[in-house]
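Record format v2
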Amino acid sequence: MIDPYLPQRVKIVKIKAVADDAALFTLQFEDSKVQKKYAFIQGQFAMVGIIGAGECALDICSPSDKSSKYMQVTVKQVGFLTKKLVDSKVGDILTFRGPFGNGWPNLNKLAKPNIILIAGGSGVAPIRGEIEHIISSKYFKENTVQVLCGSNEIEYLMYQDEMANWVNNDIRLGISVDRLKRATAVANAKVVKGVITQLLNGDNIDKDSTVFMVGPPAMYKPVIKKLQELGFADEDIYFSLERRMYCGIGVCQHCAVNDVYICKDGPVFNVNDLINNPDLI
Ligand SMILES: Cc1cc2nc3c(=O)[nH]c(=O)nc-3n(C[C@H](O)[C@H](O)[C@H](O)COP(=O)(O)OP(=O)(O)OC[C@H]3O[C@@H](n4cnc5c(N)ncnc54)[C@H](O)[C@@H]3O)c2cc1C
Ligand code: FES
């Protein structure tokens, strides 16, 4: 196991813009022995930092089968550290601790193997790795996979260039944009004007599915309510949460919500977890 307290030096080997304000970083440990030891579960996160500037939590969004070769994270510029990260260059050294957290449930153990992935805003980043995993494992051959993405502006919708590949692999794509200025389509999916719940139209949704969702705090309650109205059972709805984090391993208490640590007990929770801790959302 890689020491969770010790930031490891990682080199930026590639940077790709994935929206107007976000970039995908491909990273490699400087120490190749550490890289070989590294493995993660989709939905886990890492603490990524710049020496002298700090660390922040970022979801790991690489394909799982490439984990011994590199790590990928998506950075959306929102403040001090994420701006410094987005301004970094190929060859720069960052720090990396992780992987941390529980990750999404194992696809092979789901009671309902059809999947709906719902991503609001920068939530597309944490589901992108799961989508790559689904495509490479041919999961969609046996099961239906739907991806529903919402963004406030079309320019901020991440991974538009990868969506054609999702659709070519039989993933059913739905997109909503709050402030849509003109009719448009992405990867042949007509973009719907409005918030993401617009995509949860009973006719288009495979209700015999497990839901994974991630997005801004305001998204969770209305989306869960809509899914419940459509007949989804609470145990089939999973969501991933973000809180300000420091240690990432259940020590500093910065991410605590009552007796639950988002970093250690999450970031992925089930709607049934809200019975004991409704303050989670
Ligand atoms: C488990 C987890 C996974 C994450 N995955 C990603 C990811 O894949 N890509 C990505 O771009 N970001 C991700 N984030 C959010 C990221 O950690 C924050 O955007 C980052 O810490 C902001 O640092 P900053 O110094 O740039 O912003 P600051 O200058 O500290 O703050 C700028 C603004 O962002 C808000 N903010 C800061 N941290 C958070 C947070 N954790 N949640 C919500 N709002 C916050 C502040 O309140 C402020 O309004 C994740 C967070 C968590 C906890
Ligand atoms: S970030 Fe320190 S306890 Fe969760």
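The pocket of FE2/S2 (inorganic) cluster (ligand 2) is lined by residues 245-248, 250-255, 261, 263 (CB under 6 Å).
The longest strand covers residues 8-19.
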